[in-house]
Automatic annotation (TrEMBL):
Family of the protein in this entry: Belongs to the calponin family.
Annotated compartments: Cytoplasm
Polar residues: bias regions: 179-189
Name used for this protein in its record: Transgelin
The organism's taxonomic lineage, starting at the top: Eukaryota, Metazoa, Chordata, Craniata, Vertebrata
Gene3D superfamilies per UniProt: Calponin-like domain
A cellular component term, taken from the record's GO annotations: cytoplasm
Organism (species): Prunella himalayana
Superkingdom, taxonomy of origin: Eukaryota
Annotated segments matching region Disordered: 179-200
Ranges where the Calponin-homology (CH) domain occurs: 24-137
Keywords for this protein: Acetylation, Cytoplasm, Muscle protein
Length: 200
């Protein structure tokens, strides 16, 4: 946004650490998924962090990606006919993607900030958001995910258990090990070193 000069000292160190978190292999997998999910019309980026950033920067590819995870007729992000050229419109498109991703189920801690992508501040955070979105899509298994399911880890799902009233009552009669009973075990006969010598 604002013209910024090069970073020096601690700022440069912090930025270089952030840039080292970017994963080129993960980029390849994410590009394959986005192309499989949205179709070849989205194109492919140049290899590398900067090419990936330029590909996603205007928010159109991201918007198409999140829309493809919903059934027809319920697309959460409105995509303009012509890609936005003005900066605030592009950032607004990215913000719409982020809102739709959060509504889809991506946790707030996994969501990147708009400037992370737009100014390439933290492209690793963008990768984390896309990974979280892909994991949710695979986990939901609602037929809207396209691509190899092995590209993403399935999220843990709730396995709720139901107990009858009699089972709950039986549980009250059992003494847990945390309550001090260990089937008759005690500390009798145990020694912890020599007793303290008191010399007067």
């Amino acid at each position: 946004m604002a013209n910024k000069g090069p970073a020096y000292g601690m700022s440069r160190d912090v930025q270089s650490k952030i840039e080292k978190k970017y994963d080129d292999e993960l980029e390849d997998r994410l590009v394959e998924w986005i192309v499989a999910q949205c179709g070849a019309a989205v194109g492919r980026p140049e290899r590398g962090r900067l090419g990936f950033q330029v590909w996603l920067k205007n928010g159109i590819v991201l918007s198409r990606l999140v829309n493809s995870l919903y059934p027809d007729g319920s697309k959460p992000v409105k995509i303009p006919d012509a890609p936005p050229t003005m900066v605030f419109k592009q950032m607004e498109q990215i913000a719409q993607f982020l809102k739709a991703a959060e509504d889809y189920g991506v946790g707030k801690t996994d969501i990147f900030q708009t400037v992370d992508l737009f100014e390439a501040k933290d492209m690793a955070a963008v990768q984390r958001t896309l990974m979280a979105l892909g994991s949710l899509a695979v986990t939901k298994n609602d037929g809207n995910y396209h691509g190899d399911p092995n590209w993403f880890m399935k999220k843990a799902q709730e396995h709720k258990r139901e107990f009858t009233e009699s089972q709950l009552k039986e549980g009250k009669n059992i003494i847990g090990l945390q309550m001090g009973s260990n089937k008759g075990a005690s500390q009798a006969g145990m020694s912890y070193g020599r007793p303290r010598q008191i010399i007067s």
